[in-house]
Amino acid sequence: MLTKRIIPCLDIKNGRTVKGVNFVNLRDAGDPVELAKKYAEVGADELVLLDISATIEERETIYELVKRVGAQVDIPFTVGGGIASVEKVAHILRNGADKVSVNSAVVYRPILAKEISDEFGAQCLVVAIDARQVDGEWLVHTHGGSKPTELKLFDWAEEMQSKGAGEILFTSMDHDGTKAGFACEALAMMNERLTIPVIASGGAGSMDHFVDVFTKGKADAGLAASVFHFDEIGLSELKGYLRQKNIEVRI
After folding, report:
1. Which parts of the chain have pLDDT scores under 50?
2. Does this model's pTM top 0.85?
3. Fewer Cβ in 10 A, N or C end of the chain?
4. Which of 45, 51, 130, 212 is catalytic?
């Protein structure tokens, strides 16, 4: 059995880690370099750094921050936010990231996923999908979840897999920051349709939510932010709890 991964997410705005509810009402959560170092030391399997306002503000990812984080951690980390070209991917990887996450850019230009995968390998490409239910249908949203599209979640995930995505990072905007649990039903449906790993994001509020996301949601990794940033769940304690529930994790 493949081990399940626990991934803290650092949402970055103006060089600081922030966290809100449903992508709004942000509050400061600390220095991203210090947080990244702490998570690597206490057993995080990977990290995700998302420059959450990069696409909205049409500016580049914070390359200097990527370099500083890379110098402090010895676990894989993914960087996303405002990445819209193969050249930017190359720059991020040169600065120390292991993977890139693309979201809005591939919605508007799907072939970008294939270009990145062809150039750097599928293992470097995480396609992030933000979605919420609209009239009972899961629809993809862009620009930090602020712009709805007509793309259907599961069809879009399959298309990105076919274009060379190595992983899908699915965030339920309906669950994000609510601490009410992950979108396990949607995650299980996605898992049935894909052959690549699915990272679950949005809704973590308790250790049992992680149990659910791995057992009911069939996710390969669970991503969370505020419960780790504000010490509501200890990462090493979480892994011990998952082990007790017969869920294989790296200690």
Report:
1. 22-23
2. yes
3. N
4. 130
